[in-house]
Specification:
Chain A is about 70% helix and about 0% strand. By secondary structure, chain A is mainly alpha-helical. Chain B has two domains: about 40 residues, no CATH class; about 200 residues, MetI-like (MetI-like fold). Classes of the chains: A mainly alpha (about 325), B mainly alpha (about 270). At the A-B interface, α1, α2, α3, α6 and α7 of A face α2, α4, α5, α6 and α7 of B.
Chain lengths: ~325, ~270
């Protein structure tokens, strides 16, 4: 250390007052634990856990909590049992919306994996060493910028006179409706979430032993066989960790379907927002929130039971969602 | 497959990288940066309804007259700085609590509660919860509720970044300082904190940019008098897109991308 001479400078006299108290504290591990973690545990409980728990409370009261009666009518409105029994799927609009949201989340997750595999295989195994850091940085940077801006950027690309349809028109091809459709939601969500898969998958590709690939090639395996038999199985844990994250974040997406999805790309979180923003039915909105959280936690639980290391994806990058 | 490989070999492409893989990588970068490029192009487009693109800096010049946008930008910067300071201090303290100190023993449960749950629960649910919470307290919306929401939202990220540094920290440095006669306070100030500085600065920068770009929490707890920039942009995009929105977006992108580059380079993976 360059400052070794400063280390003991001036601290040789017996400590007194505040300093002494801090030093005694440093010997008490319980006190140290309390002072370091106490404030944040308190803050998080008051300003995170209680607000979220408040939604659970709202979901089981007719109207104002603790003043009005306890009820399950809000959950019954979501899952109308008589409609379930008579198989009147048309009478279950909220269940259908949730199902469609989860369907969109699955499609987005699969597309993200398809996009992530080639680029991470390239970055982790083939990219020149001196470019590697820069190329990875280029993936991370958009991740840390405003997802709202990156999402609305698709409006001039997907709209009826937008860039894609303009290009199609110039080629003499028929235009396709993209903005405010199901595919608008899908494209926007893939764009926003694909780094969640790319980053953990890159980490797996990077740690993949290149000599395994060489050995397989030497033994006569074709490129596709190498990928199928060696690369894919060894990098699957990283891919799945990212995929789980994309799925749960997509299932609760609000901004992207609201800007790009129109009615056919509408998702569950939008109907929750409506209950608070315009319908002023907080109790029903709270019930729908509880259902969404249950779906998210349930998916995580299933993923962990399947042995997917969900924690893998959360460290790298992480911006804004 | 072997035919394709042979063809590639004859074209001289098979040495290290197959052409397909390289093409896919290039296309992915086009996909990642295309929309950002579109924003940039649109921000310099003179014709508001015209079909032809013509260069003009007028939307940037117009920004100076848009008091609403400047005010929101200023507010977002202020919120970002306050959130950055609070979140980083909490993160440094908590990182030591989680990584170094023996008590409490059940660190797994604690880090699930402090980090994993806030990172995985939908932000929209938290935004709504906070909105209901502050309404119940009669505190309404505004600067303080946004700051509180953003601190809770950035804390897990900041803590992960600092904790990674604490885990990697070479303890022999601290032991050497103690052997040379430094007490724990001096060691912490002169050895531990300087060694951790890259991670602390990275955590601070990440906290700032996460808060600066955050939309959903602000959307639910911002009031009429205090509208952060992302909420303002949302309003402009939901209505008829005004051309200034592209110019102010470029300003936002430049700020957050610069910070992201610095923070990512500082951070140890």
């Amino acid at each position: 250390m360059s400052s070794s001479s400063e280390l003991s400078g001036g601290e040789t006299t017996a400590p007194s007052g505040f300093r002494a108290r801090v030093l005694t504290m440093a010997d008490n591990s319980r006190l140290k634990g309390l002072t370091s973690l106490g404030p944040i545990v308190t803050l998080l409980t008051v300003f995170y856990a209680i607000p979220v728990a408040l939604l659970i409370v709202y979901s089981v009261f007719v109207d104002d909590p603790f003043v009005t009666a306890i009820t399950f009518e809000h959950f019954a409105r979501f899952l109308d049992l008589s409609a379930v029994i008579s198989l009147q799927i048309g009478d279950l609009p909220y269940v259908r919306l949730l199902a469609r949201s989860l369907g969109i989340a699955v499609v987005v997750t699969v597309l993200s994996l398809i996009i992530a595999y080639p680029i991470t295989y390239y970055l982790g195994q083939h990219a020149p060493e001196r470019w590697q850091m820069l190329l990875v940085l280029l993936v991370i940077i958009p991740f840390w910028t405003s997802y709202l801006i990156r999402t609305y950027a698709w409006i001039p690309i997907l709209s009826r006179n937008g860039f894609i349809n303009g290009a199609l028109g110039a080629l003499g091809l028929p235009t396709v409706p993209l903005l405010n459709t199901y595919w608008g939601s899908i494209i926007g969500l893939v764009y926003v979430f694909v780094p969640f898969v790319i980053l953990p998958l890159y980490a797996s590709m990077r740690s993949l032993d290149a000599s395994l690939i060489e050995a397989a090639r030497d033994l006569g395996a074709s490129r596709s066989a190498v990928f199928r038999e060696v690369v894919f199985p060894l990098t699957l844990p990283g891919a799945l960790a990212g995929a789980v994250f994309v799925f749960i974040k997509c299932a609760a997406a609000y901004v992207t379907p609201a800007l790009l999805g129109g009615t056919s790309g509408r998702m569950f979180a939008q109907v929750i927002e409506t209950q608070f923003g315009t319908a002023f039915n907080w109790n029903f909105g709270a019930a729908l929130s509880v259902i969404l959280v249950a779906v998210v936690l349930g998916s995580l639980w299933i993923a962990m039971r399947l042995g997917i290391d969900v924690g893998k994806s959360r460290g790298l990058g992480g911006g804004g969602l | 497959m072997s035919t394709a490989d042979g063809l590639q070999e004859r074209l001289g492409l098979n040495s290290d990288v197959s052409l397909g893989l390289k093409t896919a990588a290039v296309l992915t970068y086009v996909f990642l940066y295309g929309p950002i490029f579109v924003i940039l192009v649109m921000s310099f487009d003179a014709g508001r309804y015209g079909l032809r693109w013509e260069f003009s800096p007028e939307w940037y010049l117009n920004l100076a007259t848009r008091g609403d946008l400047i005010g929101s930008l200023w507010l977002s910067l202020q919120i970002g700085v306050v959130v950055m300071i609070v979140s980083t201090v909490l993160a440094v303290v908590a990182a030591f609590g989680l990584v170094r100190f023996d008590w409490p023993r059940r660190k797994g449960a604690l880090s699930t509660y402090l980090i994993f749950v806030p990172l995985t629960l939908p932000i929209i649910i938290y935004g709504i919860g906070l909105f209901v919470f502050f309404s119940q307290l009669g505190l309404g919306r505004g600067f303080i509720p946004i700051v509180i929401g953003h601190v809770m939202y950035t804390f897990p990220f900041a803590t992960l970044v600092v904790a990674a540094g604490v885990i990697d920290l070479d303890r022999s440095l601290e032991e050497a300082a103690m052997d040379l006669g430094a007490d724990p306070i001096t060691t912490f100030r002169e050895v531990t904190i300087p060694a951790l500085m890259p991670n602390i600065v990275a955590a601070a920068l990440f906290s700032f940019t996460l808060s600066f770009d955050e939309f959903l929490i602000s959307f639910f707890v911002s009031g009429a008098g205090s509208i952060p920039l992302p909420v303002r942009i949302w309003g402009m995009v939901r209505a008829d897109i005004e051309p200034e929105v592209y110019a102010i977006s470029v300003v936002v992108l430049v700020i957050s991308m610069t910070i992201a580059v610095i923070a990512t380079r500082l951070r140890r993976f």
